[in-house]
Write a structure and sequence with these properties.
Layout (H helix, E strand, L loop, with lengths): L1 E3 L8 E7 L6 H12 L9 H17 L8 E7 L3 E7 L24 H8 L2 E7 L2 E9 L7
Antiparallel strand pairs: 1-2, 2-3, 3-4, 4-6, 5-6
Helix pairs in contact: 1-2, 2-3
């Protein structure tokens, strides 16, 4: 679903996707993001980073909230000079780390999500409280996108 203004000479495009709290919904989220972003040729070099980081944030929202039956909301905004993605859940919340995650153990079976989000995106901000968690990620585009 989209709102805001589309690419044809207007200011921006905002797309929203709501997924059920299950890991099987993550594939559809990835397809949705690719379809949303591929209409912007200047974003092509960044699509895989944006899709992968968003996948990790959404997977964390699903996996770390097993008691939550609420959906995970994803908002993707294409701006002239950046793509902003927000992933929100309605879980119990947690205390986000003060610093980005360190390089994970290459032999570990899990624990790479936060590291990957920080490695793939230019800015990552996490806010969490007892009503849920919101991860906001920004990928800056060079040169500025003409929307």
């Amino acid at each position: 679903m989209s709102d805001g203004k589309a690419r044809n000479g207007r200011s921006r495009k905002v797309s929203r996707y709501t997924l059920e709290p299950s890991t099987s919904a993550l594939t559809t989220l990835r397809e949705f993001l690719r379809a949303t972003l591929k209409s912007y040729p200047d974003i092509e070099p960044y699509i895989q980073d944006i899709v992968s980081a968003t996948h990790e944030a959404a997977k964390n929202a699903v996996v770390h909230n097993p008691d939550s039956s609420g959906p995970v909301d994803v908002r993707c905004e294409v701006r002239r000079d950046s793509v902003v993605v927000e992933v929100s859940d309605r879980g119990k919340g947690f205390k986000p780390p003060d610093k980005p995650a360190l390089l994970p153990d290459p032999e570990a079976l899990a624990g790479r999500g936060t590291f990957l989000m920080h490695a793939l995106m230019d800015d990552v901000e996490t806010k969490s409280d007892r009503r849920g968690t919101r991860v906001r990620m920004v990928k800056r585009l060079e040169p500025a996108l003409q929307v």
